[in-house]
Amino acid sequence: MARGRALAGLALLGLLAACGGEAGAGPGATGGELTGTVLDPPFEVDPTPLVDTSGAAYSLTEDTDKDLTLVFFGYTNCPDICGQVMATLAGTLARLDDEQKERLDVVFVTTDPARDTGEVVEDYVSAFDDSIVGVTGPLDDIIGVARSMAVAVDQGEKLPSGGYEVTHGTRVLAIDADDESTMMWDQDVSQAELAGDVTLLLDEG
After folding, report:
1. d(CA 82, CA 74)
2. CA-based nearest residue to 38, from 183, 200, 179, 187
3. Are the beta carbons of 54 and 193 closer than 8 angstroms?
4. For 87-107, what is each residue's pLDDT tens digit?
5. Residue 68 pairs with which residues in a beta bridge?
């Protein structure tokens, strides 16, 4: 059921985007309104454990015990969008106070585990903010977890250069304390907009 709802959401929201080409969000909200898109109904997050950069099992439901978790699916060799979104997440964290950051997890899940080992992912996320959790794991498991949140992940055929294209969602998704994905933001959300929404969501919690 969760899978069907997620796939329906995928068709409705157009979350599938090759790295480098998705339209941005509309104008940011002001006056205490949320900038992001509320997911109604929310997506039920697949609890399948992935692997954190220390090699331990990491589930987006069982191991995200904060009031709010922000999740982004990307890969370290991404030429443009991933770095942009990761910089936004890091900038968002910089805008929050210590109490807010204690109630928030930010998670990067690689969509290219063949190249993104635990060590590679750790170096990547640490370059943005050392509090960001880096996650890898078997590709099939990553695809299943991503699909439950209406994020499509695909590795295309090899390129003449020997590499390969990786297609992945370009949006940030929120997981609440009930392990449901309740909100998303487009790739061009600003640090101020995302920090404002996080503040509102934490205040509501």
Report:
1. 6
2. 183
3. no
4. 999 999 999 999 999 999 999
5. 104, 176
How many CB atoms lie under 10 A from the CB of residue 173? Answer: 27
Asked whether the bond before 160 is cis by omega within 30 degrees of 0, the reply is no
Sign of the torsion formed by the C-alpha atoms of 158, 119, 109 and 190: negative
Could you tell me which of 173, 169, 156 has the C-alpha nearest to residue 17?
169
Phi and psi torsions of 144, nearest 5° = -65, -45
Return the exposure string of 99-121: e unless at least 16 CB atoms fall within 10 Å of the residue's CB, then b: ebbeebbbbbbbbbbeebebebb
pTM for this prediction: 0.82
3-state class of 122 per DSSP?
Answer: helix
From CA 113, how far away is CA 49, in angstroms rounded?
14
Segment 98-156, tens digit of pLDDT: 999 999 999 999 999 999 999 999 999 999 999 999 999 999 999 999 999 999 887 65
Q: What angle do CA 190, 195, 200 make, to 5 degrees?
A: 130
Answer for the pair 84, 186: CB distance below 8 angstroms, yes or no: no
